[in-house]
Amino acid sequence: MILKHPITTEKAIRLIESENKLTFVVDNKATSERVKKEFEKEFKAKVEKINTLRRGNKKIAYIRLSAETPAIDIATRLGLM
User: Fold this and answer.
1) List of domains in the chain
2) Best label site of 10, 36, 69, 75, fewest CB within 10 Å?
3) Over the stretch 17-74, which tens digit does the pLDDT of each residue have?
């Protein structure tokens, strides 16, 4: 499983509302391309760009969705909002 769980910090919620981005903890060996494919397959949403960041022993993916797919809809489906 590449996508482990969404991050629900205040910053992550602010990114959902302002920049149409979702934040997930992902597998340490996952590439941006694999994260994109997995996310699009699981949520049936178009991904515009993915940035990854290593923080300690975690890998975090910032997933920007395209304009036609509001991140708040997926966040509501996940129970974040």
Assistant:
1) 3-78 (3.30.70.330)
2) 10
3) 999 999 999 999 999 999 999 999 999 999 999 999 999 999 999 999 999 999 999 9
DSSP SS3 for 45? coil
Identify the helix (H) or strand (E) that includes residue 8.
none
Helix, strand or coil, per DSSP, at residue 75: helix
Q: What are the angstrom distances between the C-alpha of 73 and each of 9, 37, 55, 65?
A: 17, 19, 27, 11
Contact 56/80 with Cβ under 8 angstroms? no
CA-wise closest residue to 71 among 11, 9, 12? 12
Q: How confident is the model at residue 10 (pLDDT cuts 50, 70, 90)?
A: very high
